[in-house]
Structure formats: structure tokens, C-alpha cells
Amino acid sequence: MKVFKTIDQFRQWRRNEFLEARSVGFVPTMGALHAGHTGLIDHAKSENDSVVVSIFVNPAQFAPTEDFDSYPRSWETDKIKLQEKGKVDAVLLPLIAEMYPSGITLDVSQQQGTFVHVQGLSHQLEGKARPHFFRGVATVVSKLFNIVQPETAYFGQKDIQQTVVLKALVRDLLIPTTVRVFPTLREDDGLALSSRNAYLSPDQRKHANALWRGLSAARDVYLSHKDSSRDEILGAAQKIIDEVSQLTQCEVELEYISMASPETLLEVGKAVDGTILSGAMRIGKKGQLVTRIIDNLILES
Amino acid sequence: MKVFKTIDQFRQWRRNEFLEARSVGFVPTMGALHAGHTGLIDHAKSENDSVVVSIFVNPAQFAPTEDFDSYPRSWETDKIKLQEKGKVDAVLLPLIAEMYPSGITLDVSQQQGTFVHVQGLSHQLEGKARPHFFRGVATVVSKLFNIVQPETAYFGQKDIQQTVVLKALVRDLLIPTTVRVFPTLREDDGLALSSRNAYLSPDQRKHANALWRGLSAARDVYLSHKDSSRDEILGAAQKIIDEVSQLTQCEVELEYISMASPETLLEVGKAVDGTILSGAMRIGKKGQLVTRIIDNLILES
Questions:
Q1: Which reaction does it catalyse (chains A, B) (predicted)?
Q2: CB-based contact (8 Å) between A6 and chain B?
Q3: Hey, what CATH topology would domain A195-298 get?
Q4: Helix spans in B64-159 (H)
Q5: What is the mean predicted confidence (pLDDT) over B105-129?
Q6: What ipTM was assigned to the predicted interfaces of this complex?
Q7: Contact: A119, B113; criterion CB under 8 Å
Q8: Which residue out of B99, B172, B263, B265 would a mutagenesis test of the A interface target, given it has the greatest number of A Cβ atoms within 10 Å?
Q9: Residues contacting residue B5 through CB under 8 Å, at least 6 positions apart
């Protein structure tokens, strides 16, 4: 497993893969690796000759109020996990200064340089809570794809809007990379694996699966009666999360719950197979550390 | 010379160039080819194994009020010129629907899909007269680079802000392509070659070199006294264009004249070697066809 801290050195390695006609699968990450990431590495290795993992906590996708500084960074642990995995050929650990040659500040109004925006898919759902988040994601993924030039890139369904945005990015900009999406990995109680779960106290952790339980209940309503109304479906989710919210004296709070089209990510009145149920939930008392939990599922009979 | 009307067929040709380790030089154009374009082809051929020319009139860089519909399209003549040149290996003539898979309308507020914006270099000079022009340019060039994957791309200095924007695009997005810029080619009287010169009436054509004569006079002021003030330098250009404007009863009108930094494209108070003098001039009576002439030079002792 080769570790590259400069883009130039990585490009030399990549050039050799081209010359030897070896296909490259790519798993971009922000580090703090868990089984969700290593599962994607398994898929990448089974479909490609070589696997590249990048670890880069991307400033452009954090708002000034968010957790850029405190986001978990654990390269030594990550490195051991990747080595044990034994399936990664190259790790790219680029510096912020190399990734943002025109500089980068978290204040969007002050930013200079090149940014990539996917209009129509970036303003709703997660984009409503985090207005410049997908601009940051589309920009950094454009950069990473230009460096790694992968045949295929691997993403988890947990960030489902991200996967829709990135598929549009690749299609619109005619990037010669295929985006593959794999199901969310979960703890035994259903909580989706996430690097930010590390923020949860033991007590918060007990209630953190409320969003998943809510989404699952909403799915059950759809599966039992396909003609269920939007209110009946989403109401089932809302009810479960409200109960937990009361139980925990508002330490758990639903941020949004959505039933949306997989193509436009706009809200729909009627569910069909393929419709996305998604939501975000906050855990933590105001004034203290608040953790956002996001989750989703795709309706399927 | 192979001509490709679909991106897939072009990509097959490109794949073979990769496998044979042949370097590719790229000259993106909007067609209506003149000696400025064929000069860039000469440079591309002298520096690469293969040369690709694209011809695509890019809707995203035209405002609804501009000449997208009437922009000169002359593929049959262009094809003969390219064949006679004998230096072009592949021509890419993509369809709008393939270049804009999410669709494209000239009304920016209605646009959907992925767009690339170079902040800080797109709002001044030409970007002031044409607010979304460089967003359109950066977006289409990103797409073309992802299709053609050239080692080197060739541009004329005539569109100097475009070259600064595209160099920033390539640097910021870490695109593995080198941007090369070559001097503007000119008619005997100094008028910069441009596809839009075809719009000029014989009488307008006689006065069309006023901008270049103005810029040259401004340069002479700088060269004779390095300490000349901004007003002295730009005043020399203004004077010549004003004279022509009076002579032609305002059929010729200066739009702007600029003395700017080559890095930031912001106006400077003091000229030094490397400073860009540029301007835009309109020819044509109001209510009739108005043609914009742009030109520039880089100060150099």
C-alpha cells in the first residue's frame, strides 16, 4: 500500500497504471474510516485491478458554524485499518493548499477560484440545512476525479443526495468515470454507520436509531398499502421520532422528513417504488454539542 | 482526418491514442475558422503526436440578447480548411444534447445541471458586459477537456481574460492539461482576426482597427515614459477611438478600456511590464446590427 502526500507523486503512480492498462477503482473518504468505507473498498477491489482511497477533510463542504475543526481525524488508526484490509494499492492524503491552489476559506462570500455547482439538486433536503454543502462536495470530487482518473468510484447510499448530485456531475461534465452506489451499512440496532457517530454520548447512542426506526415504519405503511397518502407514510416516521423526542426531553429533534423523487429530489405526493424516504435528526441539548444523524431508504416492493 | 459527431465514437478513438502513448494537442473552437485558429493548429501539431479540433457553438456562453442564433456556422468551409491544413487527426462536432445532458437554456435563472464558475476572475472586463459569459466558457471547456483529455490545449491571446480564467480553472480543478497561449493574429491594418469580423460592413471594416490603434498608442506612451500615469496611458487610447467615433458619427463607440493586473484582472494605477491593456468597442448604429470588437496587448519593454 503506497501512501502519497503530494499530487505529483500520486500522478506518477497513476501514469504507470494507465501504461499497464490496469483499471482503477476509487473510494473517496474524509477518513475516520469504518466498516461502511471498508465495505466500499471490498466492492472496488472486486471490480478493478487497483484500488485508490483518498482521505481529505474538505473545507469547502463545511459552513463556518460547522465541525470542520473538530471533525475526527485519525490517520494512524485509518492506516492500520487499510493495511489490515490488504486491498488498497494507493492512499492519497493531499494537503489543503494543493487541493485549493487559489486558497480556501469557509466563508463562501469570500471564496476565490473555481467551484462546481449542480443546479436543481443542491438546494433541497440536506442542501436546505447546509446551503453550500453540495457545491463543496461537487467541487472536491471534481478535483479528486481529475487527480485519480478512476474508471469507477464508490459511494455509500447513506449520503443519498450526494450520490444523486455526483451522478449528475459526472453525466453533465462528461467525466469518464462511473459512479457506483452501495447500500448503507448499519449497527445491530439499525443506526447507519457514520464517522460522526463518534460524537454521541452512550446515552445519546441508545436513541440514535430513532430516525432509522421511523423511516422503516414509514416503509411498512407503504408496503402494507401502496395507496397510502404522503401524510400516512411520513406520519408513521414522525410519530416514532416524536416519541423519542418526548422521552429524551427534546434532546432528540427531527429536522426534516422527506418523500422525494429519485431523479429530481423534489417532494412527491404519491409514493411509488423508487421513491426516496429520507430525514435528518439532531441529538444534543442546545448550547452543547449537537450531532446530526441522516438516513434514508428507497421504497421497493 | 476523422470527424466524430458522437462523444462515444470520439472516446473510442481517444482510447487508442492512450494505448499507443500518443500525446494529444487540442484546439477548441466555435467554428468559422480563420488563420487565428489554423495558427493554433500549427502549434498543436508541432508539439504533439495528434491534434484534435472541436467545433461547438456553446449556448451557455451567450446571453439571451446575444448572437447565438446568428453566430456564423460554416462546417463545409471549415472542413475544407482543416483538410487542406493536413495537420488535424480528429474533429469533434458534438451535439448540444450530448454536451448538456440536463438540457440548456440561455436564461441562466432557468438553467439546471452542472456549471463551473471561476470566482474572482469572471466578473470584470468582458464579464462586466457579459455577466455569465465565463461561467459558460469554464463549463464547456471542463466538458471538452473531460472528453478530449488533451496533454495540451491551445488558445489565442485575443480572448485574454478567457486564457486567464482557463488557466485558473485548470490549476484549481487539478485538470491534467497544460494551457498554452499564442499571440493574436492580425489583418494588415492591425485588426485582430475574429469570426465576428464577418458581421462588419465594408465601411465599418475600415474603422474596425481603431481599438488596436488606440491600444498601440497607449503602449507607446508607456514605452516612452515608464512612469506615465494611468490616465496618460489610457487617455492615448481613448483619444484615438474618440476621433474615430466623431468621424463616424458615433457608429464606433468605446465600451471600456482597461489597464489591469495579469494575475487578478483588477485595474491597476501603475503600469509595469506584464500589465494588460485591453478594451472593447462597438461598431454599428443603435437599432441595427452592432458588432463588438475586443482586443488587448501585454506591456513589455
A1: (R)-pantoate + beta-alanine + ATP = (R)-pantothenate + AMP + diphosphate + H(+)
A2: no
A3: Pantoate--beta-alanine Ligase; Chain: A,domain 2 (3.30.1300)
A4: 75-85, 96-99, 126-129, 133-148
A5: 97
A6: 0.96
A7: yes
A8: B172
A9: B93, B94, B95
